[in-house]
Design a protein that fits this description.
The complex is a heterodimer of chains A (about 525) and B (about 170). By secondary structure, chain A is α/β, with parallel strands linked by helices. Chain A is about 25% helix and about 15% strand. By secondary structure, chain B is mainly alpha-helical. Classes of the chains: A alpha/beta (about 525), B mainly alpha (about 170). Chain B: This is Secreted protein.
C-alpha cells in the first residue's frame, strides 16, 4: 500500500505528533517499509516561511491552545496560561530548539542507584543499559550532523560565547567549547553551514539547524510509506474489546471529525499533550485513561532546573549576533553531592532579542531597576541553566475539567513545585553563572527566573516494573501492547542534558523494535 | 502572554509651539509633543486628551527610558483610545489622580519627581488597571521596530546574509 492511506486501513501505524520523537519515528518506520499515518495538530512551515521577529514568530509557531498551571513555580504566576514554550507545527519543537545535542552521562541512566533515596523524589533507574545506547546515539548524531562528533568541526564562537568562555576559563572551568550542536559548521546532508544569523528559536531560515520539518518528514514522505496529515488534532485513541488500540479519532483541517483505523498507535505529542491524550481516552475498560494501570500517566513531570543569568558590561557585546546557543560549560554536569545537591547542570549561552528580553528578564518587573538593565541591552551577555530536576509524583499533568479547548475537551493543568534539590542546584548555578560574568568585569548581573518550559519530560515514564511507570524499555505501554509512547514523556529521569538527541536516539531504537515486532506478527 | 497587535498607526501632525520632551494637551482632541527633530501629535476620539497625556506619563513612569521619546510611549498606549477600552482607562486614570491628590497634588502629572510618581504606581501595582497598562507595554513599547535601534538591537539579519561576515565575533575589549 502506498500513501495516502484509507481511513479504514487497519494495517497502518498511526503516529501522533511529528517532532523529535514522532517525526523521526515516522520516517524511520517509513524507511523500513512500514505504512505510517502521522497526525500533526499544526501546519507546515518551512525555512522560507519562518519569521525572524520574536513575537510574530511566536504567533506563527507556538502552541497557544489553552492550558492552566498550578504549583509554586514562578511560571504559574508570570505565565499562568503558558506553562510551556513549544511548537505546534509539522516538525514540532525541532523548529524552535536551539540545537544542543548532548549524550546522557552513563550514571544518569541509573539515577536511583547513583543518587540513592532522595526524599520526596520518585527516582527510578532507566530500564536501558547505557552501552546499548552508544550506537543509537551515534546514529542520531549522524542524522542531525552534530558538531564535534565524528570529526565534524565545532561552530565558531560569537561575541556572547567569547565573553562566556573568558569568564569560564578565569574561574578554572575546563570543559568549555562551542557545543555539540545540530547546526552545520560546514555543509552537511544537503543543509548549508550556519550563517550566524541569530533567531535559532524562530526556525532556521537557512536550514543549517536540523529540524524534522525539512529532513525526516519529507524523506519519509518520499518513500511513499508515510502520509503526514497536518492540522489534524487528535481527540482520543479508541480500543477494541480485547483492549488493544484500534483507531485514532481526530478533527481534520476542515473541522470535520475523522477516525483512522490503526494496527499500532504511537503517541508523541510532548509531555503535556501525550498524557492528556491518554487521560482523555478513558473508557469503560480503562476508566483512569489508557495505559494507566500504574497511575503514573501524567506524573513525574520534569522541566529541567532552568533559569538564566544575564549580565551587563561597560562595553558592547551584541549577544544577539550569531548562534543563539553558542557555547557550553560542562564542568558542573557531573554528579558531586559535595555541592549540596545530586545530579548536575550545564551552562549554555543564550541570547534573546529586545522584545523577548523585555518579557523574560524579570517578568512583571517595572520601574528604573528594570529599565536601566534594558538600557544596556547592547552590552548584555547571557546564559541558560539546564540541570537535572527530581521527578516527583505530585508534579503532574491532570485534566482541568473547568477549562476546555476549541474541541470541547478538558485542557491540561500543569502542576509543578520545585524540589529542594532543584532549588539548591539553581542557586548554585546562579552563583556560578554570575561569577563567570563577574570574572570578565560585569557591572551588573541578573539571576533570571525560568521561562515557560521547553524541556517537558517524564509524564509517561519508562520502567522495568509495570507498577512504576507507563512504558517498557522500548516505549511500549505496559498495559496495551500496540500502544507506544515516542516522545520525551517516556523519560524515566531527565539527566542534565538537553533532551532532543536522546529523544531522537530512542525513536530510532523504537522504530527498529516496532518494525521487528510487526515482522514477527507480535503487533 | 499574547502578542498585542500593533494596529495603531503613528500620526505625526505639525504642532506649533510644542515643548521638548514632554507630551501635553493641545486644543481639543489632541495630545502633542516633540521628539528630536519632528513634532508629533496624537488624535484621541474616545479618551479625554488629558487622560491620554496622563496615560503617556504613566507609561513612561512604568518603563522609564530617558533616551526614548514620548511619541513611542504614545504609540504604545494609543490602542486604549477605543470605545471598549476608554471607560476603564478613564476610571484608572481618575484613581491615579485621586492618589496624587492624597499627597497634595492636583493631578498625577503635577507630581514633579519620578520617584514620587513611582510610589503612587506602586500603591496600585496589583490593580487590574496597572497590570493592564504594564502588560500591554511589554509588547506595545518594546516590540516597536522603531524603538529597537535606540537600544542598539538590530532585529533580523537574514536579509543581509546574517553576521557571518558582519561581526558575529567582533569583540575587542576582552
Amino acid at each position: 500500500m502506498t500513501a495516502p492511506f484509507d481511513l479504514s486501513d487497519d494495517t497502518v501505524v498511526v503516529v501522533i505528533g511529528t517532532g523529535a520523537g514522532g517525526g523521526v519515528l515516522a520516517n524511520e518506520l517509513a524507511q523500513k517499509g512500514v505504512s505510517v499515518v502521522a497526525l500533526e495538530a499544526g501546519g507546515r512551515y518551512l525555512p522560507e516561511d519562518y519569521i525572524n521577529d520574536e513575537w510574530e514568530s511566536f504567533g506563527q509557531l507556538a502552541w497557544t491552545d489553552p492550558r492552566t498551571t498550578s504549583g509554586d513555580w514562578r511560571v504559574a504566576r508570570d505565565f499562568s496560561g503558558l506553562p510551556a514554550w513549544i511548537v505546534k507545527a509539522v516538525g514540532g519543537t525541532t523548529t524552535h530548539w536551539a540545537g544542543a545535542s548532548l549524550r546522557f552521562q552513563d550514571h544518569e541512566w541509573k539515577a536511583r542507584t547513583t543518587y540513592g533515596d532522595v526524599q520526596g523524589a520518585n527516582l527510578l533507574d532507566w530500564p536501558i543499559d547505557p552501552r546499548e545506547m552508544d550506537d543509537y546515539y551515534t546514529r542520531a548524531e549522524e542524522k542531525l550532523g552534530v558538531t564535534r562528533t565524528n570529526d565534524r568541526a565545532g561552530l565558531p564562537g560569537n561575541t556572547n560565547f567569547k565573553v562566556f568562555e573568558k569568564g569560564a576559563k578565569a574561574l578554572g572551568y575546563e570543559e568549555v567549547h562551542t557545543g555539540r550542536m545540530a547546526i552545520n559548521s560546514a555543509d552537511y546532508d544537503e543543509r548549508p553551514a550556519c550563517q550566524q544569523t541569530g533567531f535559532c528559536f524562530q526556525g532556521c531560515k537557512w536550514g543549517a539547524k536540523w529540524s524534522a520539518a525539512y529532513t525526516d518528514i519529507p524523506r519519509g514522505e518520499a518513500t511513499g510509506n508515510l502520509e503526514v496529515r497536518e492540522r489534524c488534532h487528535v481527540l482520543r485513541i479508541e480500543h477494541d474489546e480485547e483492549g488493544k488500540a484500534s483507531s485514532v479519532v481526530y478533527v481534520d483541517a476542515g473541522g470535520t471529525q475523522q477516525e483512522q483505523k490503526a494496527r499500532v498507535v504511537c503517541v508523541a505529542g510532548n509531555s503535556i499533550e501525550s498524557p492528556r491524550l491518554l487521560l482523555n481516552s478513558a473508557s469503560q475498560m480503562f476508566p483512569d485513561g489508557l495505559a494507566n494501570s500504574s497511575g503514573q500517566v501524567g506524573r513525574n513531570y520534569m522541566r529541567h532546573v532552568t533559569g538564566s543569568v544575564y549580565a551587563t558590561f561597560d562595553k558592547p557585546v551584541r549577544m544577539w549576533r550569531g548562534t543563539t546557543m553558542a557555547g557550553i560549560i560542562q564542568d558542573e554536569a557531573r554528579h558531586d553531592p559535595e555541592r549540596g545537591f545530586v545530579g548536575g547542570y550545564e551552562l549554555e549561552t543564550l541570547a534573546l532579542g529586545l522584545p523577548f528580553m523585555a518579557a523574560f528578564l524579570d517578568p512583571g518587573g517595572w520601574g528604573r531597576e528594570f529599565t536601566s538593565a534594558l538600557d544596556h541591552y547592547e552590552n548584555m551577555a547571557g546564559m541558560w541553566i539546564v540541570g537535572e530536576d527530581m521527578p516527583q509524583e505530585t508534579n503532574r499533568i491532570t485534566l482541568n475539567h473547568a477549562v476546555t479547548d476549541q474541541h470541547g475537551l478538558p485542557v491540561a493543568d500543569v502542576h509543578f513545585d520545585d524540589h529542594p534539590n532543584d532549588i539548591a542546584m539553581r542557586n548554585h548555578a546562579y552563583k556560578q553563572g554570575m561569577a563567570v560574568y563577574d570574572a570578565v568585569g560585569a557591572t551588573r548581573t541578573f539571576p533570571t527566573p525560568p521561562y515557560p518550559s521547553t524541556h517537558n519530560l517524564g509524564t509517561n515514564r519508562m520502567s522495568a516494573n509495570p507498577r512504576d511507570g507507563v512504558v517498557n524499555s522500548h516505549g511500549q505501554s505496559h498495559d496495551i501492547a500496540n500502544l507506544f509512547v515516542s516522545d520525551g514523556s517516556q523519560f524515566t529521569t531527565g539527566a542534565s542534558e538537553n533532551p532532543t538527541l536522546t529523544i531522537v536516539a530512542l525513536a530510532i531504537r523504537q522504530a527498529e523494535f516496532i518494525a521487528a515486532e510487526l515482522g514477527r506478527q507480535n503487533l | 502572554m499574547t502578542s498585542r497587535k500593533q494596529g495603531m498607526t503613528r500620526r505625526q501632525l505639525l504642532s506649533q509651539g510644542a515643548m521638548a520632551g514632554a507630551s501635553f494637551v493641545v486644543g481639543s482632541g489632541f495630545v502633542a509633543g516633540q521628539a528630536h527633530a519632528a513634532n508629533w501629535a496624537l488624535e484621541v476620539t474616545h479618551l479625554q486628551p488629558e487622560t491620554m497625556a496622563t496615560l503617556i506619563q504613566m507609561a513612561r513612569d512604568i518603563y522609564p527610558h530617558d533616551q526614548v521619546s514620548d511619541e513611542f510611549y504614545a504609540i504604545a498606549v494609543k490602542g486604549y483610545d477605543s470605545e471598549d477600552a476608554a471607560p476603564g482607562i478613564e476610571a484608572g486614570i481618575a484613581a491615579l489622580n485621586e492618589a496624587a491628590r492624597g499627597i497634595g497634588y492636583a493631578r498625577y502629572v503635577d507630581v514633579g519627581w519620578e520617584r514620587d510618581r513611582a510610589d503612587l504606581l506602586r500603591g496600585m501595582e496589583n490593580s487590574a488597571f496597572f497590570q493592564q497598562i504594564r502588560g500591554g507595554l511589554v509588547t506595545g513599547l518594546y516590540n516597536q521596530k522603531a524603538v529597537w535601534p535606540i537600544f542598539g538591537y538590530e532585529g533580523e539579519s537574514f536579509s543581509k546574509g546574517g553576521y557571518i561576515d558582519r561581526g558575529f565575533d567582533d569583540i575587542n575589549w576582552l
